[in-house]
Amino acid sequence: MRASPGDTIAAISTAIGPGAIAIVRLSGGRAIETADEVFRGRRRLCDCAGHTVHHGPIVDRDGSEIDEVLATVMRSPNSFTTEDMIEFGCHGGGLAARRVLEACLVAGARLARRGEFTERAFLAGRLDLVQAEAVADIVAARTRKGLESALGQLEGRLSGRLSDLRERLIDLKAEVEALVDFDDLSGGDGGTRAVREAAAAARAETARLLAHCDLGVAVREGIAVAIVGKPNVGKSSLMNALLMRERSIVTPVPGTTRDAIEETIDLRGVPVRLIDTAGWHDAGDEAEEAGVERAKSAARGASFVLFVLDASTGVDERDRTIARALDPARVVAIENKIDLPPASDGVCLSELPSRAWLATARVSALTGDGLDTLRSTLVTVLLGGEPAEPVLLGNVRHIDALRCVDAALGRAAELVERSEAPEIIGVELNEAMLALGEITGETTPDDVLQRIFDRFCVGK
Ligand SMILES: Nc1nc2c(ncn2[C@@H]2O[C@H](COP(=O)(O)OP(=O)(O)O)[C@@H](O)[C@H]2O)c(=O)[nH]1
Ligand SMILES: [Mg+2]
Fold first, then answer.
1. Do 230 and 377 fall within a single domain?
2. Residues 254, 378: one domain?
3. Residues 367, 239: one domain?
4. Do 143 and 107 share a structural domain?
5. pLDDT digits (tens, 9 = 90+) for 243-275
6. Residue that wins the pLDDT comparison between 385 and 236
7. 192 closest CA partner among 201, 180, 203
8. What mean pLDDT, rounded, does the chain reach?
9. Are 365 and 404 in the same domain?
10. Percentage of residues in the chain having pLDDT higher than 70
11. Which of 3, 27, 290, 429 is deepest in the core (most CB within 10 A)?
12. Among 232, 257, 277, 313, residue to substitute to test ligand 1 (most atoms within 8 Å of Cβ)
């Protein structure tokens, strides 16, 4: 393990930039002594009880004042890391906090690595790995549902479900070991039935956890949706209408949106990343050509595509070209500008080579007509309906490991059916236990741990 718990680490734990306060955090065996080197309050922090706050200046090595702070003392083991911790509430703006941090480093602290505070909490057993990861998810959450889900994970909701599963695996192992006392499994006695039942119960729990994982990933990572169509059909207008505010540049001149613009909307708690692309047609100049290329690759990279058509002009060859290039199973085809008189022949979507679109919609980005229906359509096709499940598995690492648990359980169940020796079944069960332990951190390899904590920001 790369951490060396005990030595005193320091970092700025608030975002850089303008703000009312900034927090410099210290943790480790000498956190309070180190703080006393720079803090000049009425009392030494060493003499102060845990969970108390003290006002005073911070000075540099020459004794000149750097900032005036509130120092919070937290004593081991009652702190986030379980070590002694100090938090200096400095003035915001970045510079004061940076100078306070420097003073702490001069006084003997070491600059914390990314996620090192959380890593220490994990190593001390204060959090399991799932909870430590939830800390990063809370910081990254973009919707209320994402935040709720991450908070639930930090509070141990997922850990609780995983430890239930662990109990079931232990039961199953015990039942299998009991079989060793019988000559074989084919006796048709109560022993094998108990094994079958325990295996089925464990698999049912993994299935329940995995059932909503697509939605869980969507809540955590968002769903990428590209808006494509030829120039001037109203892609940027539609994006703005969905965002309910101005973001993309809307002009009557074709080819204005030359770069892909990305904005996130909150669709029933799921962050949906709308990507407004440049008009998709034979590009006129080079900058536009690059934009068109980006539109094509955005459509390829996105999970879903909103394909916009102009109902007032009907479709032409350029629409057909785009239609042919798209995978209809990922496309919501949208007739826009329904506020205007329809094209003379009155046909639009139906004019396209018939394709099995995921869904279709008729809207006016200008008047807002049809947008509510479009939103409901998106809830259905993007989310598969209204999200419900309280514990959402959204972390791909957890999902992969749980699938390994499930696969090992499946193999174990098959071995039971074939009346294989209990020792052989036991091997699969150990595999399942190991995979489960990787989720919570008990058996997670060091390099995986390192990768997880490297994704945190400094100061977390
Ligand atoms: N009447 C009407 N005009 C629209 C509608 N949507 C977009 N427009 C207009 O069509 C023009 C092109 O829109 P824009 O969003 O820039 O198209 P883009 O090139 O596909 O991004 C602008 O003048 C918009 O005001 C609509 O629903 N109704
Ligand atoms: Mg545009």
1. yes
2. yes
3. yes
4. no
5. 875 555 565 566 555 566 888 898 888 889 999
6. 236
7. 180
8. 87
9. no
10. 87
11. 27
12. 232
* pTM metric for this prediction: 0.74
- Ligand 1 atom with minimal separation from the 250 CA: 16
Over residues 201-241, the pLDDT tens digits come to: 999 999 988 988 888 888 888 899 999 998 899 999 999 99
C-alpha 262/C-alpha 15 separation (Å) is: 23
Does 35 reside within a domain? yes
Start-to-end Cα distance in the chain: 18
Name which of 356, 366, 240 is nearest 312 in CA terms.
Answer: 366
pLDDT at position 73 is 98
Check whether residue 418 and residue 326 sit in a common domain.
no
Per residue, the 3-state secondary structure of 197-237, as one string, reads HHHHHHHHHHHHHHHCHHHHHHHHHCEEEEEECCCCCCHHH
Residue 208 domain-assigned (yes or no): yes
Structural domain boundaries enclosing 95: 9-128
Report, as an integer, the average pLDDT of 184-206: 77
What average pLDDT score do residues 177-206 get?
A: 75
Indicate if ligand 1 lies below 6 Å from the C-beta of 336: yes
| 246 touches ligand 1 (CB under 6 Å) | no
Q: From ligand 1's centre to the CA of 218, what distance in Å? A: 30
Kindly report the protein residue whose alpha carbon is nearest to atom 23 of ligand 1.
252
pLDDT at 458 over 80: yes
For residue 164, the domain's CATH number is 1.20.120.430
Please tell me if the CB atom of residue 237 comes closer than 6 angstroms to any atom of ligand 1.
yes
Strand order in the sheet with 65-74: 52-59, 65-74, 85-91, 21-27, 9-12, 110-111
Residue 388 lies in a domain: no
User: For residue 418, which phi and psi values (nearest 5 degrees)?
Assistant: -85, 5
Helices (runs of H) and strands (runs of E) counted in the chain: 15, 12
**In whole angstroms, how far apart are CA 457 and each of 113, 152, 181?**
8, 21, 53
CA of 324 to the centre of ligand 1 (A): 23
Q: Do 97 and 152 have their domain in common?
A: no
Residues 237 and 379 reside in one and the same domain: yes
- 3-class state of residue 418 by DSSP: coil
The pLDDT score that the predictor gives to residue 435 is: 95
Whether 327 is in a domain gets the answer yes
Q: Please write the tens of the pLDDT for every residue from 324-365.
A: 888 899 999 999 999 998 876 656 777 777 678 999 999 999
